Amino acid sequence: MTSSAHSPKILVTGGAGFIGSHTVVSLVEAGFEPVIVDDLSNSLSSALDGLRAILGRDVAFYQADCNDREAMKAIFEQEQLTGVIHFAAYKAVGESVAEPLKYYNNNLGSLLLLLDLMKEYKVRTLVFSSSCTVYGQPEHLPVTEETPRLPAQSPYGNTKAIGEDIIRDAVRAQWPVKALALRYFNPIGAHPSAEIGELPLGVPANLVPFITQTAAGMRPSLTVYGDDYNTPDGTCVRDYIHVMDLADAHVQALRQLNETNADACYDVINIGTGRGETVLNVIKTFEEATGVSVNYTIGPRRPGDVEQVYADVSKSARVLNWKTTHSLAEALRDAWRWQQKIGAKVASE
Ligand code: NAD
Ligand code: WQD
């Protein structure tokens, strides 16, 4: 691994989580030195063991709440940070409807505190985890960054839209930060080593973990939420991106920000493959890629689901000089290898 004591240190909030842990690997491979802060509210310390197995060494880890000013200040004081990637957030859409203030407090409080500390400690670059959820159901596909954001369907989605606006307004007012908000489409898969991956606690809400748990026999059947949409086979369309491709996009985002001369700047970029896949095609591709069949039935539509969304990726190619390199089949095979590795470990319900 290429990073060393002299590598630029990047604070990775939520670095024990799904996308954060994979990004830690990409950062080290690219010569950055990640410093993880995570309160393990939606992850397990075993992610750090997985990182150690991949990297052959430990990465700095602070178990702390990103809303805890004293703890965060101590980290900024201790580490000579050059940038921040802010993954830490709660992300369960349904829970956010039931407990909106929990989401606003955590997702936005942490961002406000980070911006404050970045100013105080002269840390200039920020990459923020946003989401394609800000587009809702777009009128035209694929969605470009100019596609209007729609009023969020959930408090979770609202925290992403407001988070973007907070950064935009701070930068407009010359807050000395260079920032990119990356609007992720649907991240799936795992590191090919199967040492790290997605750890849905309880019953997975997302499609791919549900497929892998069903294939593993942990769940009797997958329900496909509706087959009467106006799509090629009637099921919803999404842009599924391998989490390692997504991880690499963060490295490119940091590099791009480091090359920017402005004192303060802000932009948003879609991070997807540019391809839309139906639910039934994801199941079929999983079965072909793994040789394992998935028991499923067609059920009613899931309230709040958008019919189809996939990214226009020309801006990410142009601005970040980045594009995806992994296929859907590879992502599903890696998700399956990870599932086989963890077995029933985290499926508590
Ligand atoms: P995740 O839950 O696996 O990771 C988030 C991590 O942040 C977890 O390890 C959790 O313990 C930690 N965390 C949460 N609140 C914290 C706090 N106050 N202090 C310290 N740590 C805290 O989620 P993920 O899928 O890796 O998502 C990462 C980011 O990307 C989130 O901001 C999420 O909203 C965003 N995002 C995710 C998806 C997706 O489908 N996974 C899509 C678009 C955007
Ligand atoms: C994908 C497709 C379902 C489960 C969510 C969040 C969004 C963003 C990405 C963070 C849909 C179908 C699913 C199942 C199914 N996250 N499905 N049976 O809905 O695109 O978005 O993750 O920002 O905010 O809402 O992802 O994985 O839940 O669903 O048929 O058991 O799979 O209807 O079409 P989604 P998903």
Automatic annotation (TrEMBL):
Ranges where the NAD(P)-binding domain occurs: 11-334
Cofactor needs: NAD(+)
One GO cellular component, as annotated: cytosol
EC number annotated for this UniProt entry: 5.1.3.2
GO biological process, one term: galactose metabolic process
Key words of the record: Carbohydrate metabolism, Isomerase, NAD
UniProt keyword NAD present: yes
Molecular function terms, GO-annotated: UDP-glucose 4-epimerase activity
Classification via InterPro entries: NAD(P)-bd_dom, NAD(P)-bd_dom_sf, UDP_G4E
Pfam families attached to this UniProt entry: GDP_Man_Dehyd
Catalytic EC class: isomerase
Catalytic activity field: UDP-alpha-D-glucose = UDP-alpha-D-galactose
Recorded metabolic or biological pathway in which this protein acts: Carbohydrate metabolism; galactose metabolism
Gene3D superfamilies (alphabetical): NAD(P)-binding Rossmann-like Domain, UDP-galactose 4-epimerase, domain 1
Keyword Iron-sulfur in record: no
Quaternary structure and partners: Homodimer.
PANTHER family associated with the record: UDP-GLUCOSE 4-EPIMERASE
Family: Belongs to the NAD(P)-dependent epimerase/dehydratase family.
Protein name: UDP-glucose 4-epimerase
